[in-house]
Amino acid sequence: HMEPAVSSKAKVIAFANQKGGVAKTTTTLNLAAAFAEEGHRVLCVDMDPQGNLTMSQGIDPDSLEKSMFDVLVYDLSIREVIRRREIDVACASIDLAGAEIAMSTKIGRERSLEKAFRPILEDYDFICIDTPPSLGLLTINALTAADKVIVPVQCEYLSMRGLIQLQNTLSMIRENLNPDVDIEGILPTLVDSRTIHAKEAIEILEENFGDRVFASRIKKTVRFAEAPVRGMSVLKYDPDGMAAQSYRELAKEVLGNGKR
Ligand code: ADP
Ligand code: MG
């Protein structure tokens, strides 16, 4: 086993949108799987008390003795909660729902995740953080620890107000906690190419956010609901399908954007 000649630090990407059901978890896992397919070392971090990302790799959150709760609240080493599956997953369970209150009196509460990453930054090329559907302390921890943010947007129910609110939160994070964090891109998800509405929604996105909107689009298909039930990414579940291909294309776009 040869060590790489030059060790480099992971690029940390948070997947955020305070709206639920926009494919944050799906995008976190499948983009991570696409990076891994390209030979990158990838960690996914589940910051959602619902533990959907953890479950989507076939891990039962109720079976976990320690989880991201212990990392954030008690400074447990993140290595203790990483399970190796298709990709590495730092697992969440429902107790994470109590983390925001448990952390509220902690000094440096916004930086708990950033601090947890420090010892493992050289172990990975990418760290992908799934966030809950809110802009509370768990998401603030993710945005503070991140180099970049990917914003999945469901084109069917486009909420411009929601996106502006997310941008305002990001501005506050930049001013107070993490000056360099920026949006890597906005990703149109759950695109039903048959409807005029989806087309219009993407046009509105592009008018408002220009080239911040990824060229990749993630179309609607039942494969995305089927794969997690088997504990797999769509890249493993249906490697030749268009669902897998769309995340490979997104990976190419992100890999082509600077740094790596
Ligand atoms: P979030 O994490 O933002 O709440 P999820 O990733 O859990 O969203 O996705 C919400 C639901 O939509 C899940 O049931 C998921 O399987 C499904 N889904 C995600 N992406 C797609 C897609 N491109 N086509 C069809 N269903 C999808
Ligand atoms: Mg989710």
UniProtKB/TrEMBL annotation:
May play a role in septum formation. One of its GO terms (molecular function) is hydrolase activity. It holds the Pfam family AAA_31. CDD domains: ParAB_family. Its EC number is 3.6.-.-. The gene is soj_1. The keyword Membrane does not apply. Keywords: Hydrolase. Residues 10-183 form the AAA domain. InterPro entries: AAA_dom, DNA_Partitioning_ATPase, P-loop_NTPase. Belongs to the ParA family. Gene3D superfamilies: P-loop containing nucleotide triphosphate hydrolases. SUPFAM superfamilies: P-loop containing nucleoside triphosphate hydrolases. Signal peptide: none annotated. This is Sporulation initiation inhibitor protein Soj.
